[in-house]
């Protein structure tokens, strides 16, 4: 019999059974998460399930953030925020308020997720947690509400697509370019209810902030999860976050003879910066096919590319320069910690001096209702994860997706620009500068 993938091993561990792709399991969940949009319905389900004696099964690992409409952009949002606060206060959940950051970033920064954890969140981009070696996946409010009470949830063990990148990434090519290329190759539904498992020497060389990008956007090809096998670099990152060094469970590493549904192999040297054109992430093309496309707004942030290292790449490009005429830039850090780093290192000043708008930590305009939405006819180049019609505002707007480097270069010219036309930096390790300053 062939070996196992990470998903097969991890769900075997969490269910206490020897399972393979296609099996159904009842698995123990390590961490549960919701936010201000999906939380209220989740709480209703939880209270319905628990009846007269409601109690969270694991309040220390039940995390609720206020991030999508933060700060509140209307009365309904403000009321939802109060529902979140009251629930957390009543049941002892771990609650993060306005400005603390996006759920996915907060869970990683605060040390809630370790290699080998099974994490569910009432948000589709909960696949992000695979970047530190967990099995993260999005679920509906009904499933989450029930799991808050029981600690267990059923899963179908997913098949796995393996994406291997060998060699050294060329200048101008980052994790965002890799994942856009993968999505373009397999299609928006090419990994539906499957795990995207990432490997190869180029992936192994990626710092954690870039591995998180690969896992975050697994859902954009339908992925149930997106996992990078954890290693010593993973542990270095988590120790820098929390002061504690977790272990790497054996079940987080695939067997050499694992049975994959398909293996997609790439040579890093042959890859180029990618841009996804409107209005689907699968519309990925080399940047030179869209160079010269005029843009009205640039959006830097989201759970995909809102970390300090991402934002710093853009700041390095525009430092001492002005945004191109008639071009707007909205910058939204992924967490309060990132916001503080921007202040303490001068990155904030770089953006303000260039004419950009820097906002408090949260989802920003990625959700399409808040902090910089697009109007009719507006064209935006974003570091976000989705560019569906109306995703960032008007149904008559257009959104292109790209790496922070491509967005930074394009800010100087007011049109999509090949990032290899400017001087670029690459951050190979977690950047601690400005932390705690």
TrEMBL record:
Name of this chain's protein: 3-isopropylmalate dehydratase large subunit
Biological function: Catalyzes the isomerization between 2-isopropylmalate and 3-isopropylmalate, via the formation of 2-isopropylmaleate.
HAMAP family per the UniProt record, alphabetical: LeuC_type2
GO molecular function (one): metal ion binding
Catalyzed reactions per annotation: (2R,3S)-3-isopropylmalate = (2S)-2-isopropylmalate
Annotated binding of [4Fe-4S] cluster, by residue: 303, 363, 366
PANTHER family found in the cross-reference section: HOMOACONITASE, MITOCHONDRIAL-RELATED (PTHR43822), ISOPROPYLMALATE_CITRAMALATE ISOMERASE LARGE SUBUNIT (PTHR43822:SF22)
Organism (species): Halorubrum lacusprofundi (strain ATCC 49239 / DSM 5036 / JCM 8891 / ACAM 34)
